[in-house]
């Protein structure tokens, strides 16, 4: 397991999987260890995945100053990893909350982005929040059978309480985040609690983390192509919101994976890996 020392002396770890051109991968969660990304549906067949454990997660050290869990303060970690890898420009993939870190990195270092894939990303960094209505719109696409009807009712209660739902209700809504609630999805979901640093997650989007106007201006300087990949069944983000994010990049595009939700590489591994590989290889 390789490690490197970032700007403030914190030792960060990353994991290498597969062979080929490197693809730097930023996990979501927020602040979930990169383990949950697995091989991203088999992307390892043609890419060397560089899976970063964000500070305080997985095999990376807890920083001396825990205020550095704030996402804007992790941009320098991504740049330190680029330097560690000896890359002039990077192919970058980010999932969910990690999309905010990727957006901030791209805005700060637009010349370092060759191609970027944002997978079911949140976009707090550019003031494109997901609304409760968005979330329920995605959830209601599953209505008409169990466990989804029960999950939708529980999700409604959670959203009415501004996300402060009971543990029992959160357990009930889990099927809504996967295209198929099968054994693989249940195992993936069950691992989440042990993989996430709760304190770091609470600090991730803390006060002062975002400057949406400045970030939007920075994204307009990204010359590399950007793919925003949404899931047809996902409420976070809905495809329409993903399209609005793609429009912020000069060469941004959106694609919607059919019958997929928040973890599309689990819902259709071959379809996901094939779409991402075609994007990364275009024009190579």
CATH class: Alpha Beta
* Domains, number: 1
CATH topology: Rossmann fold
Cα-atom radius of gyration: 18 Å
Q: What separation lies between the terminal Cα atoms?
A: 29 Å
* Helical content class: 25-40%
Quickly give the CATH architecture. 3-Layer(aba) Sandwich
Largest sheet: 8 strands, mixed
Give the CA-based shape: globular
Spans of at least 5 consecutive residues whose pLDDT stays below 50 are none
Report mean pLDDT, rounded to a whole number: 96
Strand content: 15-25%
> CATH superfamily assignment?
Alpha/Beta hydrolase fold, catalytic domain
Q: What pattern of helices and strands is seen along the backbone?
A: EEEEHEHEHHHHHHHEHEHH
Order of strands in the sheet with the most strands? 1-2-4-3-5-6-7-8
| Number of DSSP strand runs | 8
């Amino acid at each position: 397991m390789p490690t490197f020392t970032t700007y403030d002396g914190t030792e960060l770890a990353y994991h290498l999987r597969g062979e080929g051109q490197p693809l730097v991968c930023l996990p979501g969660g927020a602040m979930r260890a990169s383990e949950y990304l697995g091989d991203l549906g088999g992307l390892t067949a043609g890419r060397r995945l560089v899976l970063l454990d964000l500070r305080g997660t997985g095999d990376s050290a807890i920083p001396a100053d825990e205020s550095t869990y704030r996402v804007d303060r992790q941009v320098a970690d991504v740049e330190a990893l680029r330097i560690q890898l000896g890359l002039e420009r990077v192919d970058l993939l980010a999932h969910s909350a990690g999309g905010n870190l990727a957006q901030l990195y791209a805005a700060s270092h637009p010349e370092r982005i060759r191609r970027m894939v944002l997978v079911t990303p949140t976009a707090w960094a550019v003031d494109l929040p997901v609304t409760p209505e968005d979330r329920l719109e995605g959830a209601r696409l599953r209505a008409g059978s169990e466990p989804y009807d029960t999950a939708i009712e529980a999700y409604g209660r959670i959203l009415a309480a501004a996300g402060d739902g009971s543990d029992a209700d959160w357990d009930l809504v889990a099927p809504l985040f996967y295209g198929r609630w099968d054994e693989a999805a249940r195992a993936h979901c069950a691992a989440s609690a042990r993989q996430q640093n709760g304190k770091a997650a609470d600090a991730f989007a803390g006060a002062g983390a975002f400057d949406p106007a400045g970030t939007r201006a920075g994204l307009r300087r990204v010359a590399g192509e950007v793919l925003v990949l949404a899931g047809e069944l996902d409420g976070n983000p809905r495809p329409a919101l993903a399209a609005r994010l793609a429009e912020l990049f000069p060469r941004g595009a959106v694609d919607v994976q059919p019958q997929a939700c928040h973890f599309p590489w689990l819902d259709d591994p071959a379809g996901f890996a094939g779409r991402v590989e075609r994007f990364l290889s275009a024009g190579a």
